[in-house]
Amino acid sequence: MRVLGVDPGLTRCGVGVVEGVAGRPLTLLGVGVVRTPADAELGSRLVAIEQGIEQWLDEHQPQFVAVERVFSQHNVRTVMGTAQASAVAMLCASRRGIPVALHTPSEVKAAVTGSGRADKAQVGAMVTRLLRLDAPPKPADAADALALAICHIWRAPAQNRLQQAVAAHRSSTFASKGRTA
Questions:
Q1: Which position among 39, 59, 107, 141 bears the catalytic label?
Q2: Is 54 annotated in the active site?
Q3: Is 134 a catalytic residue?
Q4: 59 is an active site residue
Q5: Residue 71 to residues 52, 77, 90, 164, Cα–Cα distance (Å)
Q6: Which is deepest, 5, 13, 57, 151, by most CB within 10 Å?
């Protein structure tokens, strides 16, 4: 499974591609940051993020895109920018028919470090260890993008089985009531 992880942000949008399957060593295929100038007009920044993500999709051809789920923050301006960058990533993937998964920050931290309350340094250290790197990716947005990809690789099989079970249950419920699914 090849996954593009996206840590959304208007100024720095972390991107990282990891390939592998749960229970086996993972392979880093690429990591970086799509940057936009803080003083640029919002529309221009969103276009720059779109172009950057499109380049990553072209170059790495991921099977899935994992994006950090936007969560409520005290700073509405920050959460809006994060949500806008997140939407661009989801749009780019969806336009190509690539499935998108959203993972919360605590879910990613728990998957990678074992604790949903891990700090950025702990996440960076575990990403470094899991991908057998010499040093943590910089900036932290890049390490976070890799953590998202790793989280998705490890959690996707279980999530897919749950989704299939729910779909099967719904189908059997509709069938037992004389409806078609």
A1: 141
A2: no
A3: no
A4: no
A5: 23, 13, 16, 27
A6: 5
